[in-house]
Amino acid sequence: ELNGGCVAIGCARVMSNSLTAMVNNTENDFFEGVEKLLEVWFTRKDGKINNCDLRKLTRDQLESLMVVAKCEIISSSSTEHIDGYVLSESSMFISARRFILKTCGNTTPLTCLPMLLTFVSITTGFDTVQDLYYSRKNFKRPELQLTPHRTFADEAQMLDDMFNSGKAYCMGSVNRADCWYLYTYSYNPAKLPLALRCSNIMPPNNNTNNSVTKANNVMKTGNAGFILGARNMMNQPHENDQTLEVLMSNLDREKMSCFYKANCTNAAEATKLAGIDELIPGTVIDDVLFTPCGYSMNGLLRNIPGGYMTIHITPEPDFSYVSFETNIPQSSYKKLIGKVIECFGPKQFIITFFNSCSSGVQLGAEDGCRVPKYKDYNVNDLQICQLPNYDLTYALYNRTPS
User: For the chain, what percentages of helix, strand and coil (3-state, to nearest 5) are there?
Assistant: First the structure.
């Protein structure tokens, strides 16, 4: 399964002279490859969601959102269950209840959130934010970001101003070079204790002290009368879901050569040479190769409802960065992650893995560990977090010194 990576290496060796010239021309033009990832799930406070669909959002509305977020739609692809958009800075995915916006560079995705809530309220039939997740790795040059994205504290404050019970986390070491930030909002009107959140055991119903009624009385109203909260968990159990991210830094220069226009004439050629098309076979790929360098792709899987993968590549050696993300279930996450790191050759990578508490997925099951083991890498940090609807695994890998 690693043949694609070998092909990319061979291509790079032939083109190493042109790669050197391209590196000399671009090494002073910094670009922040680290993405800001916003994911929002929607529902209705009355639970009647059969006629609701985020894909009712119009193209004009989506383009208005992108103007506020400071990026543009380049291309799109669709299956029966999900629409994918390649952006000038990363990607957007929209399915019936979930909106995902992932943007790199100096984009400002949080600033378009109020507009998104307004558009959803007036167009799609939803009136409630069920769950929200905002996450990102630490920036290489945070001082170049625009408000509110220069610090995670500012980002969390903006979200706190909109959501009255959100929580902010930092995974990894705050006094070292690498960490990963997460803000979550998840409304739980039944007030189910976290220790029981994977159990069928429910607290007794006390009509004189109804926690659902109390919670509904303190809901916060957002834009256009949009309700933040009010999910009827009895009628709308959270779907089985899992999302894997592999965030890679200090990539192999030779393997990055395919992502320069001087070396590959188009995105399809780069996709093939790098072995990206072999990572999850069967995906319908929509890819873009930027000038003078850089690459983005979305992959949709028709036989997995809502299944997607996405890759974004900043190849310049002084600040090289690659992100891989998918929600497509895997029989072996160890094998998939191994293929990804073989494709790109990072010196360091972070894994984040969300899985719904009912899915039963174990990321490192094959090795009898919390996370997979890889021959040339050490796990330098590992944290496990239980959220109301998900388990979260964070791991930092560094290449073993030779």
Answer: 30, 30, 40
